[in-house]
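Supplementary Methods S3. Input chains for the assembly prediction are listed below.
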Amino acid sequence: MMTCTPRVVRSGQPAVFTISGADVKEGTILQLTWFPIRHRSELPYQAPLRQTGIVENGTCQITQTLSGQQEFKLMISTSEGHLAEFRLYSLEESLWSLNPYKGDMHMHSTGSDGVEAPAIVAAKGRKIGLDFMALTDHATYAPSIEAQVAFEGLPLDLALERGEEVHGPGNGVHIIHYGGSESVNTWLHTHPHEIEVAVNASPKHSDERVHREIALSHLTFDRIREVGGVAIFCHPYWQIDEGYHIAEAVTEAILKDHRFDAYEVIGGYWPHEVESNAIQVARFHHEREHGNRFPVVGVSDAHGCDRGLFGWYYTVLFAPSPKLPDVAAAIREFRSVAVEARPNHDPRPVGDFELVLYTLYLHREYFPTHDALCAEEGQWMLAHLEGDANAAQELAKLQGQVAANQALFYGR
Ligand SMILES: [Zn+2]
Ligand SMILES: [Zn+2]
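Predicted C-alpha cells for the full assembly:
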C-alpha cells in the first residue's frame, strides 16, 4: 500500500513529503499534482501545483509548500497513468501546533441507571477511540472514582477523569460536572443555607419554580468551576411527558447568562428523538446570530455500551494533551466541535466553521487509524479487568502509540 507522510503541514512553510510503497521500478518519474480544494473557488484562483519526483530505494521525497488553511488533493501518476491519490491539509500555526482528541463527557454506568460497571464503560470507551472521558452517573460522583481505581497504576493514555450528572435539590435542570476534585451533588445536598442565599440573590421571576431552577443552575455552574471542573448545560430540548423537561424561561435565562462552560449542542438522543438535537443546534445558531456565543460539546449520554448511543455522539477538540486542564481550556477557548456520527451515517460536526472543515477531514484521514490504535488498548483494559496478568505489560508497550501516530501525521 502506498503511503504519504506527513499529511498535515503548516501553511506557507516548505515541507518534505515521503511517498513510499509505490509498486514501480527504481528511477520512475512520478508526476505530482496538488489541488487546493478550497481556494480554487476564491479570487484569485489558486492553481494546482505541479512537480515531478523520482523513486529511489522505493521512496520518493519531495519538498512542497502548501498555503492557506485548507485541504489538498494530491494526485500521483507516472507515464503509464494514475498511481495514487492522497488528501492532505495545510493549517495555520495556531491549529497545527495542537493535537485532535476525541472524548465523551457524559456517560452512565451501573452507578446509576446504566448497564455496565464504571470500569467496563471506561475500557469500552477507549475501545471506540476516546482520548478523554468521565463516568457521569446521576447524582453520584463515586462511580467515576471507581473507574479510576480499577486502572490505578496502569500505563494509560486515556484521560479518565472524574464526573457526575448534577441534580440539585428542586432543580430539574441537568448539569454535567466533568473533572472537578469533589462531588457537587454532595455539596448541594449538604449546603441548604448557601442555596437559599443564592435563590434570594437571584433576580425574581413570576414563577417560583423557574426562579429556583435558574438560581440553582447558576450556583451549580459556579461550584463546578470552584472545584476545578467543566460545567455543561445538558439537553434543554429533551422531550418527556407533555413537553421539554425544563421550561423555556429557564433555558432562556441559562443561555443568556452562560455561566456554564459548554452547551450540550449534540446530546444522547435516539433516532426517534433527532428533533431534539436539531432544535439544540438551531438554538445555538440563533444565539450566535444575536451575539451570544458559547462553547459546545457533543456527548453520548449512553446508558449502556451495546444498546445504542454509545459512540454515536462525541466531542473533538484541539489541545496539547487530553488531560483535564488542556481539555477545559480547549472548550473555554472555543476549540471544540460537537459531532454526530451515528452508525452508517456520515459524521456531522457542529461548531466553528474552520474547525468543522478540519474535523470532517480528520474523520476521513486520521481518526480511523487513531481509533484502531485505541481499540487495541481498550481490549487490554478489558483483559486487565478480567484478571489477565499480562495486561499491564501489554498496555505499557502500547503507551505513546497514539502520540507517535500524531507526530507522523503532522510531520513533527
Ligand atoms: Zn440528563
Ligand atoms: Zn445523563
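The chain has two domains: 3-93, 99-373. The chain has a mean pLDDT of 96.
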